[in-house]
Amino acid sequence: MAKKYDVVIVGGGPAGLTAGLYAARDRFQTLIIERAVIGGNITNAEEVDNYPGYPEGISGVELTAKMHEQATKHGAETLSADVNSIEIIDGIKHIRTSEGDFQAGAVIIASGTERAKLEVEGEKEFTGRGVSYCATCDGPFFKGKKVAVVGGGNAALYEALHLSKFAAKVYLIHRRDAYRATMAVQEKMKQNPVIEPVLSAVVSKIRGGDKVSALELSGTGDGKIFELEVDGIFVSVGLIPNTSFVKSVIELDGHGSIKVDEKLQTSASGIFAAGDIRSHSIRQVVTAAGDGAHAAFHVREYLEA
C-alpha cells in the first residue's frame, strides 16, 4: 500500500531541500526524493562564492550538506529513488518510483537539469573513456595531461579553472567569439596560464583508440577544420530540464521547462515547481533556495484551504 505524505518533493538540490525545510517546519509530513546525489548539480562546484553569508566561499557539497541537515532536523525525510510518473486521482497525487509508490496532498517538483550532450561522433563511444560531464568528479584522472572544456558560460569556465589544478593544458572551446560567463569569472580564467581559449569553433568529432586522443574542430566563421590533441574532453554546453516523468501531467514550455504562475503552481492544481526546472529560472543556487521557500509557502496555503 502506498505510504501517504502531506508533501512530496521531487529533487534534493537547493530548491528541494529548502522546500523540505519550510514544509517540515510547518509540521507537514514531508518526503524529499532524489535520484542521484543529495545537493544536485551544485555539488559539482568546488567553490560557491556568490551565496550570501559565505564571503570566503563554500563548496557545493558542504553548502547542500548543511541544507540537508537543516531540513532533516525539522523532520523532512529523504529517499534515494527514480520518480517514474505522477498521476492525480480525485485530487490525490500518486508518485510512482523505483522504490515504491507514494501519495501526497501536494507535490513540489524541483528535479533540476542535466548536462546537454554535444551529439557528435565519438561522444557516446568515449563516455567514461575521456569524455566527461563533471570536472569535479573526473579532474584528478587527468593530472599532467591535456584536456578540453566545451562551453562558454559560468559552468564551463569554472570547470576549466578546476581542471587547471590537475591538467598541464586546458583548452576552453566556445562556438562564439566571446564567452558568456560573468566578467568576474572571465577575469579569473584569463589570469590562469594553464587555460588557452579556443573561440569561434565547435567540436565536430571525438577520436581515439581505447581512450580519447584528439578532437576534430570546425571554425564557425570560416569552416576551417583543425585538430587538437587531448586526453579528455569535458562537456558543459547547456542544461536539459528533468521533466520526462511529468510531461503528460503538466504544461511545459518550448524548452521543456515547467510553466508556473506567480505562486509557482503548475497547470495542475496542487503541483508546484521550483528552481532550475521552472520557466525563466536564472539557475542560481540562491534563487533556487528562494523558489523552494516560495513554493512551500503556497503549498501551505493550498493544503490548509
Offer a few descriptive terms.
7 helices; FAD/NAD(P)-binding domain; five-stranded parallel β-sheet; alpha/beta; 305 residues; elongated; 2 domains; seven-stranded mixed β-sheet
The top level CATH class name of the largest domain: Alpha Beta
Measured distance between first and last alpha carbons: 27 Å
Q: Please outline the major beta sheet.
A: 7 strands, mixed
CATH architecture level-2 label of the largest domain? 3-Layer(bba) Sandwich
**Approximately how much helix is present in the residues?**
10-25%
Oligomer: single chain
The radius of gyration computed from the alpha-carbon positions, rounded to a whole number of angstroms, is 21 Å
Task: Point out poorly predicted stretches.
Answer: none
Query: Which geometry do the CA atoms define?
Result: elongated
**Named CATH topology of the largest domain:** FAD/NAD(P)-binding domain
Number of domains: 2
Instruction: Name the CATH superfamily assignment of the largest domain.
Output: FAD/NAD(P)-binding domain
User: What's the total count of β strands?
Assistant: 17
Count up the helices.
7
Instruction: State which percent range the strand residues make up.
Output: 25-35%
User: What is the helix/strand order?
Assistant: EHEHEEEEEHEHEHEHEEEEEEEH
